[in-house]
Design brief:
207 residues; alpha/beta; Rossmann fold; 9 helices; 7 strands; 22% strand
Length: 207
């Protein structure tokens, strides 16, 4: 359990050799979940996107392919994730469509009302103080902007509870907890969708 716990704790802030292994697994392991979440954005055509907790960079890449006229800023507080996301999206960065920054979601290094869409895949589990963090997301969104949260755990499943016990600082929030924090942060409308037969949830919040 010691080595396993050390490895899965890399989920929170990947570092070193085990962190590199974790990030490699994230890009493939979360792809189906992320694509399902992005499917809720089919009616949107955002010109500016911020991808929060960008991990290994796969989702930033997928969003830019989905929206060929958009520009995207990817943010992560792990230096290793920033490095991996830059490598994964090298061509898009060179084309001027992608910027990758290291930063903390409690104080994003971004201007007010800068983005039409914000996304967070498998990351809000580790955000310290949901209302504070969601208020920052609301701040950087344009009026009418959308915030998408996509989680593998809905806060009630056995697997999610198991990982809460072994990953430091992890909290699998219920849809109700997320909705309450989003509304307290200034979002006007929140909708939740659940994946059939799995505890996956997608939450959409409108500024």
């Amino acid at each position: 359990m010691g080595l396993f716990k050390t490895y899965v704790n890399q989920t929170r802030k990947p570092e070193g050799f085990l962190g590199r292994l974790m990030i490699g697994g994230m890009n493939g392991g979360h792809a189906k979940l992320a694509d399902w979440g992005m499917g809720h954005l089919d009616r949107m055509s955002p010109d500016s996107i911020v991808e929060l907790g960008c991990g290994g960079g796969r989702n930033a890449n997928a969003l830019l392919k989905r929206y060929p006229d958009a520009r995207l800023t990817a943010v992560d507080y792990s230096a290793l994730s920033v490095e991996k996301t830059k490598a994964y999206n090298r061509d898009l960065i060179a084309a001027g469509r992608c910027v990758v920054l290291q930063g903390d979601v409690r104080a994003l290094p971004l201007a007010d009302a800068s983005f039409a869409l914000a996304t967070a895949f498998e990351t809000v589990y580790f955000w310290p103080g949901l209302t504070v963090c969601f208020t920052e997301v609301c701040r950087v969104l344009k009026p009418g902007g959308t915030f998408l949260i996509c989680n593998e755990s809905d806060g009630t499943d056995e697997t999610g509870r198991k990982f809460e016990k072994i990953i430091d600082g992890m909290k699998c929030h219920t849809a109700e907890e997320l909705s309450t924090a989003l509304k307290a942060a200034g979002f006007s409308r929140v909708t939740v969708d659940r994946y059939p037969k799995k505890p996956w949830i997608t939450v959409l919040a409108k500024k």
